[in-house]
Amino acid sequence: MAQDGPEQFDVVVIGAGFSGLYAIHRLRQQHSVVCFETGDGVGGTWYWNRYPGARVDIISVEYSYGFDEALQQEWRWPEYFSAQPALEEYANHVADRFDLRKHIRFSNPVTRMRFDGKTNRWHVHTANGDHVEARWVIAATGALHAPNEPAWPGRELFQGQVLHTTQWPREGMDLTGKRVALIGTGSTGVQATPIIAEQAAHLHLFQRTPAYSMPSGNRPLDPEFEADWKANYAERRQQMLQTWGVSLIDYPTYSALDCTPEQQNEILEKAWRSKNAFQLLTAFSDVMVNPAANNVVAEFARNKIRGIVKDPKTAELLCPTYPIGAKRLGNDKGYYEAFNRDNVTLVDAKSAPIVAFTAKGLRTTEAEYEFDVIILATGFDAVTGAMSRIAIEGVDGQTVAERWRDGPTTYLGAMIAGMPNLFMIHGPLTPAAQAQMITAGEWQINWTADIIEDLESRGVARIDTTPEAEQWWAQQVDAAAAMTVHNLADSWYNAKNIEGKKGGFMIYIGGFPEYTRACTEAVAGGYRGFVLTPEPATAPA
Ligand code: NA7
Asked: A GO molecular-function term, please (predicted)?
């Protein structure tokens, strides 16, 4: 292969998750496309995250593709909030139904890329030694892909098994009779806790920051609900795009502070039982923007914890003090209830942090613990990690990791100055994870594909953006974040989940309609914020 030079394609797609799959489908209609995928199967997030309890927290009739009417009419979701196996099965169905696999090279991650400014093409290299050249690259690398594994010393000494939740074996793991440590209380830890507690001889949950979580409203999908959605799918998909989070959640117009305590309580009780994962955050109009209103909801949630957990000391340790929703709200099936079991112990890893692995388990600043299995539910080098871990070299020889040393810079979350013809889906400073990601991803891919097709039809060989455009977008991102309570807690949203990681707010939370308006206006305004370079043959002499 090397002797004949690199293989030629129009488009390289990185990642065969939900966005990558649709990107292949959309682009291959007019282009030659190759996709490189790290895993040996499709599904991305829903391929990697097969830990016990892994389940989506958005109703599946929304969290699914809308690009093909027959697909959305024929596919049947078993439950309101699908579990990982159903989501992976769906991704596989889509890959087969639309014959996408022939474009995908599995177990073959992209390791480095270099833009050739003379030919205006990317050279893409992979772990298996592939070298391809393409005009366009679409990075659908996932906002929550690169695992965060704390660098405690001594991991090689531990005689049991250590694994991150993204490394869960496909065949499952029998934890029966095992002494298990689970570290982390984000969405993952909250989902996994009750299930592991049922299996393990004893579960120690190491908590650095407590989690707010709502009971999951999961249940088998009601046939009438399904039929109603299927009768109105096209219209609902359009309506979803007009909402802040690309989801048809009720958004009330009244403030928590305009209600009496009795009214507040009635509304919040209803929200708690609503079976909608985020209803507590949308119980009033101002939960996410007014700390006083937020505290009404936060105190309600804390009282729920105190009501469920029998041991008052454990209950208090489980009660968060930061605003509810500032970190991602959990969605669980018996999380707090698990602490009433005799075989579950909550460990305060804030006052006594974990400092090392030992031959038999873990050491904190206060004690030693013995385990058979240590599970790291420690989250991700989120939003930037997947891109930064590929050596991507732009026009001036600088890599993405170097450019983002002090935090990600992007224009509309889609492009990075000096990295021409490279488009990101759910990239840094997009609404990633604050918008329902399958539908939002489809929108971004269509916007990207339209740009590519438009530029090709006009003989444009290269599209780039500028540091000024990036700065303008950074201001929009920061302004949106400043209006909310999100910065009142440390999380992956603000790059404070990993010690030493720099960056401001990592995603745009001004709402999906504002985001898409900025994107469409930029293009309609003559590619405002972009720099277009024509094909050499048509360039002025
Ligand atoms: P998260 O939400 O980032 O949670 C990671 C958890 O791991 C969180 O509780 C962290 O505590 C904890 N953590 C991380 N490092 C350590 C160390 N060194 N010691 C103790 N505890 C640690 O990741 P998830 O996988 O749960 O969820 C990610 C997203 O997936 C979620 O937001 C949804 O969008 C779906 P911390 O809170 O930082 O103190």
From this structure: NADP binding
Instruction: Say how many Å lie between the CA of residue 42 and the centre of ligand 1.
Output: 25
Q: Is the C-beta atom of 330 inside 6 A of ligand 1?
A: no
- Please tell me the residue having the least CA distance from ligand 1 atom 2: 186
Q: Is the shortest distance between the CB of 100 and ligand 1 below 6 Å?
A: no
Ligand 1: nearest atom to the Cα of 497 = 38
Q: Given this model, what pLDDT does residue 2 score?
A: 47
Ligand 1 center–CA 210 separation, angstroms? 10
Q: Kindly give the number of the ligand 1 atom that is closest to the alpha carbon of 328.
A: 32
Query: Where does 248-394 show beta strands of DSSP type E?
Result: 330-332, 344-348, 354-357, 361-364, 368-370, 373-376, 391-393
For residue 64, what are the CA distances in angstroms to 14, 26, 188, 425, 531?
A: 20, 16, 21, 16, 34
E strands present in 373-487: 373-376, 391-393, 422-424, 460-465
Q: Does ligand 1 have an atom closer than 6 angstroms to the CB of 497? A: yes
List, in order, residues 6 or more apart from 399 with CB less than 8 Å away. 391, 392, 393
Short-list 317, 441, 304, 411, CA closest to 22: 441
Q: How many residues can be counted in the chain?
A: 541
**Residues 340, 190, 437, CA angle at the centre, nearest 5°?**
155
**pLDDT reported for residue 467:** 97
For 193, 277, 293, 294, the CA distances from 263, given in Å and listed in that order, are: 33, 21, 13, 15
Q: Is 147 in the pocket of ligand 1 (CB under 6 A)?
A: no
ipTM rounded to 2 decimals: 0.99
Q: Which CATH architecture has domain 7-146+382-530?
A: 3-Layer(bba) Sandwich (3.50)
Q: Which residue has the tokens 């953006």?
A: 465
Ligand 1 and 46: CB distance under 6 A: no
pTM beyond cutoff 0.95: yes
Cα–Cα distance measured from residue 376 to residue 373, given in angstroms and rounded to the nearest whole number:
10
Q: Where are the domains of the chain?
A: 7-146+382-530, 155-224+240-376
Whose CA is closest to atom 11 on ligand 1? 208
Residue 1, pLDDT > 50, answer: no
Helices and strands, number each (H, E), in the chain? 16, 20
Give the alpha-carbon dihedral of 343, 348, 349, 352, to 10 degrees.
-120
